Each structure stands twice: as C-alpha cells, then as structure tokens.
Amino acid sequence: MNFMMIKTKQHAMKVRIADVYYIKSHPEKPHYIEIVTKKKTYAILEKLQNIESLYSEYFVRCHRNCLVNISKVTEINLQDKTILIGNEGERQVRFSRRRYQHLVEQWLNKGDF
C-alpha cells in the first residue's frame, strides 16, 4: 500500500505515503487530524489511533498527539526533544520521553538510511 485515501468535506484523494511528513491532532478542531506533506496540509475527520493501526509499518507515534513517517526522520535532537523531518530538517515535531526508545528502535530498523 503506497497511498493513503484522504476524504475531506469536498474531496476524496490519494496521497502517497512517501510524501507525508507527519500526522497530528488538529490544534483547533476536535476529532480532526492534520496530514502534513511538503506541499500541503490536509484536515480530515479521523482518529489518530485508526491511522496508526492502518499504517503502522510507515508511521510511529512520537507523542500522544503525533505520528511521524519514520522514513522522513533525518535527526533526533535529544536536548530539545524534537525530531527533524525532511531533507534539510524542514519540519520539526516534539517527541515524549515515554516514546523515545520505541521511536529510535523503529528509526534504526526501518529508516531509509
């Protein structure tokens, strides 16, 4: 499965999983998540837990409100507790202490490096 099906109020589209940087809970809309790619951010009505179970081989939970595409992680900053994502660290997301060990294991085992 190389694509995710995204359904918004107006559209249904396929997005390549390789283009997704991370998925997080929407900061303003309850029950919505944001799927962040290099070019666009999609807001959809879905549970983060459902995405995690459907695409567990591609995404790892780094915080209670965020999943990262493990193949897009370029660096983990232990001091700031942030994950740099993209070719030149274009995006940053925070990780929790509790999720750190699992995150590193997945990054070492499944990352593209």
Task: Give a written overview of the molecule.
GO terms for molecular function: DNA binding; phosphorelay response regulator activity. This protein has 113 residues and is α+β, with helices and mostly antiparallel strands. The protein has a single domain, classed as OB fold (Dihydrolipoamide Acetyltransferase, E2P), CATH 2.40.50. The protein is 19% helix and 43% strand. It is built from 2 helices and 10 strands. Strands 5-4-3-7-6 form a 5-stranded antiparallel beta sheet. It is globular and about 40 Å long. The model has no long low-confidence stretch (mean pLDDT 90).
Write the SSE topology.
Blueprint (H helix, E strand, L loop, with lengths): L2 E5 L4 E5 L3 E6 L6 E6 L3 E5 L2 H7 L4 E5 L2 E4 L3 E5 L4 E4 L5 E4 L2 H14 L3
Antiparallel strand pairs: 1-2, 3-4, 3-7, 4-5, 6-7, 8-9, 9-10
Organism: Streptococcus himalayensis
Pfam family, one: LytTR
Protein name: LytR family transcriptional regulator
Considering the chains and any ligands shown, give keywords for the structure.
113 residues; alpha+beta; OB fold (Dihydrolipoamide Acetyltransferase, E2P); 5-stranded antiparallel sheet; 3-stranded antiparallel sheet; 2 helices; 10 strands; 19% helix; 43% strand
